[in-house]
Amino acid sequence: MWKRTKNEFLFCEPLEQTTKAIDIMQKIQDFFEKNDFTWDIVGSICTNGAPVMMGVRSGFTALVKQNAPHVITTHCVLHRHALAAKTLPENLKIVFQKVVEAVNFIRARALNHRLFKTFCDEMGSEHSILLLHTDVRWLSRGLLLNCVFELSTELEIFLRG
């Protein structure tokens, strides 16, 4: 679906069958043609680093560079963060693992979750909800640690009780 609102161009078009670089490039090219854009307006592209995006010969960025050699390509900072988080020192990995176990003990069990929420509400805590953490949701690591820090007293009392 193509939409235009107040000088903004929204691009939301699913890939029908395959997710190859050529398919992505065709969607972008169709968007450019429909909106009378040229590749001169593109200054940079930020991708997730997947081979379909970054492949030297047939990746999306290689296809873009065929049309616009001036385009600068970068790797998404969030994905860099995920890679860096996977290489934490062993002592920090152990601490993070214990924090995740404690949070998931409360969050993954409905009764514990309800009891913790009620407990935090009764204590007048600013927050009462913990985020369930899985390795798939690596972006939530920072939020998880912030939440645990803010609810450290409540967590200690709840887990001891």
Overall number of strands = 4
- Which regions have little confidence, pLDDT < 50, spanning 5+ residues? none
DSSP helical segment count: 8
Number of domains: 2
**How large is the share of residues in beta strands?**
5-15%
Strand order of the largest sheet: 1-2
Return Rg in Å. 23 Å
Give the overall silhouette. Answer: elongated
Q: Biggest sheet: strands, sense, closure?
A: 2 strands, antiparallel
Query: In angstroms, what separates the terminal alpha carbons?
Result: 53 Å
Helix content: 40-55%
Kindly state the mean pLDDT as a whole number? 80
Which secondary-structure class do the elements indicate?
A: mainly alpha
Helix-strand sequence: EEHEHHEHHHHH
Key words describing this protein structure:
161 residues; mainly alpha; 2 domains; 4 strands
Tell me about this structure:
With 161 residues, the chain is mainly alpha-helical. The protein folds into two domains: 2-75, no CATH class; 88-160. It has helices spanning 21-34, 51-54, 60-67, 77-86, 90-107, 110-123, 141-150, 152-160, and strands at 2-5, 8-11, 44-47, 72-75. A two-stranded antiparallel sheet has the order 1-2. It is elongated and about 65 Å long.
